[in-house]
Amino acid sequence: MQAVGIVVEYNPFHNGHAYHLEQAKQAAKADIVIAVMSGSFLQRGEPAMVDKWTRTQMALASGVDIVIELPYVYSTASATDFAKGAISLLTAIRCDSFVFGSEDGSVQPFLNTYHLIKQHRDEYDSLVRSSLQTGASFPKSLHYAYEQLTQNHPATYIDLAQPNNILGFHYIEAADRIGSPIQPLTIPRVAAGYHDDLKEGASIASATGIRKELAETGSLEGVKNVLPESSYEYLCNWHEQHTRFASWESFWPLLQFTIIRHSPNELTRYAEVTEGIEHALLKAAKTSDTFKTFMEKIKSKRYTWTRLQRMLTHIYTGFTKEQLHSFDTPTTIRLLGMTAQGQHYLGRHKKEFTLPLVSRVAATEDKMLAIDLHVAEIYNFSVESSGSSHKLPKDYQTPPIRFK
Fold first, then answer.
1. What is residue 206's DSSP assignment?
2. Does 101 score more than 60 pLDDT?
3. What ranges does the record give for the region Disordered, renumbered to this chain (predicted)?
């Protein structure tokens, strides 16, 4: 059985994801699609709008055969570590290939770009450092260094200013660095860009555009056309039970309290809190009524919105620098859900997996998995404290979803 892997957040699963899924299966000539999916908190440093189990159901209802969890350690990390965790897991579960969506749409420019930077790493790093010294942000410094390098070594390269191209580059990099035999493939994104707003009459929109529409209107009817019917129904059920979708805005009173209860020195214990920003965080938290107001006070040239959100996620969940540096690679394959076809694949290939497959976690002693359980409890409590009339499933008690 040929298995293709994809790296997803499904926040939420929309028509663009359905297209990507279909195209990935065709491009890889695969029998099985395995998705490694972020759990309670995501790569841009924000809570998932609905919990991992609802998003797993969306994925299985739309054609994914197996969903495994990308641990918190990687799902909230920078692109380099996010990709490393995801590709390590897809390799461990014996995927033959992985497919990612990109603005470029062709894999060769990604390979050219990776080998260019790999072969000229010293020059590249020197250019990054010189840009940082001018006060530019880290992403802008990376882009500057890349532009300088490509001018000196002409070939066909990707545009590293595009978010999906950036992730694609890091997937290629991760596969090479861990010595994975998995074959990289890419397909072009269609219709909606990563940050595009929802367009009237469109059938495909970005997840960012969908979330923005829901935040501004509170109406699911406005996004119905850009979602598979099953995703729409899952979102309607969630909204009926929990009143609103999870976001930093809805979690703000809890996040605000979490920041204020710490001293500046205590805040520096948490992952990604650096360079004296702890003082700005405390000052802004004490004088902000909303999350948006808070972020506008602390955002600067040095600190991007995403970097700040990841920092805040770690403060909120209590994830320390010490914990971050104690992990080097995924330790288990956490199974979230499967179809009958997916279950057949697992039964047939389980002995070939290079990490243990975990389906029940109540008695786990695995430290990385313990962090995921802890973070899920915090996420559940936050949703339930934000006006929900229903309890979310306890992560340590929930078995993998068997979708029929």
1. -
2. yes
3. 385-404
- Binding-site residues for ATP sit at 7-20, 101, 164, 189
Predicted confidence (pLDDT) at residue 91 exceeds the cutoff of 50:
yes
- The terminus-to-terminus CA distance of the chain in angstroms comes to 20
Cβ atoms of 88 and 330 within 8 Å: the answer is yes
Number of H helices, E strands in the chain: 18, 8
CA distance 315 to 269: 9
Contact between 47 and 17 under an 8 Å Cβ cutoff? The reply is no
333 φ, ψ to 5°?
-105, 105
Tell me which amino acid residue 290 is. Answer: T
**Contact between 245 and 214 (Cβ < 8 Å):** yes
Reference 100, options 32, 2, 17; nearest CA is: 17
Q: What are phi and psi of 69, to 5 degrees?
A: -95, 135
For 258-281, write each residue's pLDDT tens digit: 999 999 999 999 999 987 899 999
> Residues 308, 295: contact at Cβ < 8 Å?
yes
Strand extents, DSSP E, 160-253:
183-188
CB atoms inside a 10 Å sphere around CB 360: 12
**Cα 307 from Cα 77, distance rounded (Å):** 9
Distance CA 344, CA 342 (A): 5
User: pTM for the whole thing?
Assistant: 0.93
Asked whether residue 311 carries a pLDDT value surpassing 70, the answer given is yes
- Residue pair 117/146 in contact (Cβ under 8 Å)? The answer is yes
Q: What is the Cα–Cα distance from 247 to 239, expressed in whole angstroms?
A: 13
In the predicted structure, residue 25 carries a pLDDT above the cut 90? yes
Annotated binding site: 7-20, 101, 164, 189
Complete DSSP assignment for 289-322:
SSHHHHHHHH--SSS-HHHHHHHHHHHHHT-BHH
Q: How far apart are CA 108 and CA 111, in angstroms?
A: 5
Task: Report the run of H or E that residue 4 belongs to, with start and end.
Answer: strand 3-8
